[in-house]
C-alpha cells in the first residue's frame, strides 16, 4: 500500500515484481507497468534484476506493445489510457514536456518560463512523473548538463544511466 498517495510508488518504496501488471525488459534494465480499472496507473524504471512478466490484462499488454515500439523507434508517440494523477501544476508542466519532440531537450529553466514558474518546481514535477517515457521527463536537462532524473542525481546511479540511454536512443548528446 502506498503510504504517500501523491508520490509515485517508485519514489516511496520499491514494489516487488508481483505488484506489476507486466514487466518489460529494456536495454537499460526493465519497465514495470501497473494497471488498475482499465488505466495505466504507473510506469517504473526497474533495474535489470527484475525478470520479464507477461501482461495480465489488455491495458498492460497495450503498454508493453507501445514501450517495445518506442525502444525500436524513438519517435514513436505513446497513446495509453493514463490514470488521472497529479496536481494542476504538474499537469501544466507535463503537457509542456510531452510537447518536446524526440531528439530535443529543454532545460528546467526553459520549461519554467513556459509555465511561468521556477526551475526547481519544474524539477519537482518531473520527479513526480508517474508515466516516464509517455511523459518524457528525460528530455528536460539542467542548463549546464544532464541534471537529475526521477528524484535521483547520483552521476553513476541507475536512474541517470537510464536518462543517458534514453537521450542517446533519441540522438541527443549531453556533455
Keywords:
175 residues, Arc Repressor Mutant, subunit A, 2 domains, 3-stranded antiparallel beta sheet, disordered N terminus, MethylDNA_cys_MeTrfase_DNAb
The DSSP helix count reads 6
Span from first to last CA?
39 Å
> Which structural category fits the helices and strands?
alpha+beta
Second CATH tier, the architecture of the largest domain: Orthogonal Bundle
Whole-number tally of structural domains: 2
Weakly predicted, low-confidence segments: 1-13
Query: What is the chains' assembly state?
Result: single chain
The count of DSSP E runs of length 2 or more, i.e. the number of strands, is 5
Compute the CA-based radius of gyration: 15 Å
Overall form: globular
Could you give the order of the helices and strands?
HEEEHHEHHEH
Pfam family, one: DNA_binding_1
Domain Methylated-DNA-[protein]-cysteine S-methyltransferase DNA binding: 88-172
Organism: Paraherbaspirillum soli
Enzyme class: transferase
Amino acid at each position: 500500500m502506498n503510504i504517500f498517495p501523491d508520490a509515485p510508488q517508485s519514489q516511496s518504496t520499491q514494489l516487488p515484481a508481483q505488484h506489476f501488471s507486466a514487466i518489460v525488459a529494456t536495454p537499460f534494465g526493465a519497465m514495470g507497468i501497473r494497471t488498475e480499472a482499465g488505466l495505466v496507473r504507473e510506469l517504473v524504471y526497474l533495474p535489470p534484476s527484475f525478470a520479464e512478466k507477461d501482461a495480465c490484462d489488455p491495458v498492460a499488454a497495450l503498454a508493453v506493445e507501445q514501450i517495445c515500439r518506442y525502444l525500436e523507434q524513438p519517435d514513436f508517440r505513446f497513446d495509453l489510457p493514463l490514470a488521472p494523477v497529479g496536481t494542476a501544476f504538474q499537469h501544466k508542466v507535463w503537457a509542456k514536456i510531452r510537447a518536446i519532440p524526440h531528439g530535443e531537450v529543454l532545460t528546467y529553466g526553459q520549461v519554467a518560463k513556459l509555465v511561468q514558474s521556477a526551475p526547481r518546481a519544474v524539477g519537482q514535477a518531473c520527479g513526480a512523473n508517474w508515466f516516464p517515457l509517455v511523459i518524457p521527463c528525460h528530455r528536460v536537462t539542467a542548463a549546464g548538463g544532464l541534471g537529475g532524473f526521477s528524484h535521483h542525481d547520483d552521476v553513476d546511479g541507475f536512474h541517470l544511466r537510464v536518462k543517458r540511454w534514453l537521450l542517446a536512443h533519441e540522438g541527443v548528446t549531453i556533455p
